[in-house]
Write a structure and sequence with these properties.
- The chain is 10% helix and 52% strand.
- It is mainly beta and 144 residues long.
- It has a single domain, classed as Hypothetical Protein Pfu-838710-001, CATH 2.40.320.10.
- Strands 1, 2, 3, 4, 5, 6, 7, 8, 9 and 10 form a 10-stranded antiparallel beta sheet that branches.
- The protein is globular, with a radius of gyration of 15 Å.
- It starts with a strand and ends in a 14-residue tail after the last strand.
Length: 144
């Protein structure tokens, strides 16, 4: 189960001190979500069912050859982003800085163990608006 909230931000923190991943992802289907992702030198196939804040998610490792084969079958644009991992209050903020056609979009995501924990989350001052319930901010909707 993935339980996640999404936020726009007011200002960038100093990113030089945080680790990051280079991500390229594409969607084979959007309902249900079937995504392929290259994260640094690792490759995944992901299935997600319906939902905004909470939904089932399954990640399966695949190889580079499978990723490249499926990439040719993807719908819409390929999403490229840099994801910074920022510790905050016993959580990790995943700060996505989008590249290409989606730049200058920046979205912060925080994952939780329970819906109650997600509801009780106090966002840092550099966050702006909670866009969890806005489907426009789901990557699978950004491909068109």
């Amino acid at each position: 189960m993935e339980i996640e909230r999404k936020f726009t931000i007011k200002e960038l923190p100093n990113l030089g001190q945080y680790s990051y991943h280079k991500i390229e992802q594409a969607y084979i289907n959007t309902e249900p979500v079937m995504r392929i992702r290259k994260q640094d030198d690792e490759y995944y196939f992901t299935y997600k069912n319906k939902g905004l804040m909470a939904r089932e998610e399954y990640n399966l490792p695949i190889d580079k050859k499978s990723f490249e084969h499926l990439l040719k079958k993807a719908d819409g644009r390929i999403i490229s982003k840099t994801r910074y991992l920022i510790p905050y209050d016993n959580h990790t903020v995943e700060l996505d800085i989008f590249e290409g056609e989606l730049a200058p979009l920046i979205i912060a995501e925080v994952e939780f163990d329970t819906i109650e924990e997600a509801a009780a989350f106090n966002m840092p001052e550099w966050f702006d608006k909670d866009v969890t319930e806005d489907p426009r901010y789901h990557n699978s909707n950004m491909i068109f």
